[in-house]
Specification:
The chain is mainly β. 0% of the residues lie in helices and 51% in strands.
Length: 120
């Protein structure tokens, strides 16, 4: 059974930082592109950042220069370091895994999500 378990969410003031982590099990982690999505109330889920099987990172424009995604294939983990957080970053953040080679689109597996709340 595949599991993606997120941790690290919470409440932070604007301008602060958070590090989200995702631990994967039950899959050949290195065979997946993995990434982070987010969904704010009333909005569609959107891709925040993705890292390919080969370790190449992609960032959505709205987080570029504020986030760093990394994966550790020996520990089956993917992390998202977020800095200079804004109230509009408030959302539930989901870890995802896709069979795509480069970008974590059309994920096959999802975590349950972790809440990030940024206060102004």
């Amino acid at each position: 059974q595949v599991q993606l378990v997120e941790s690290g969410g919470g409440l932070v003031q604007a301008g602060g930082s958070l590090r989200l982590s995702c631990a994967a099990s039950g899959l050949t982690f290195g065979a997946y592109a993995v990434g982070w999505y987010r969904q704010a109330p009333g909005k569609e889920r959107e891709l925040v950042a993705s890292v390919s099987r080969g370790g190449n990172a992609y960032y959505a424009d709205f987080v570029k220069d504020r986030c760093t995604i990394s994966r550790d294939n020996t520990k089956n983990t993917v992390s998202l370091q977020m800095t200079s957080l804004k109230p509009e970053d408030t959302a539930v953040y989901y870890c995802a895994a896709s069979t795509r080679v480069v970008l974590c689109t059309d994920p096959r597996y999802w975590g349950r999500g972790t809440q990030v709340t940024v206060s102004s």
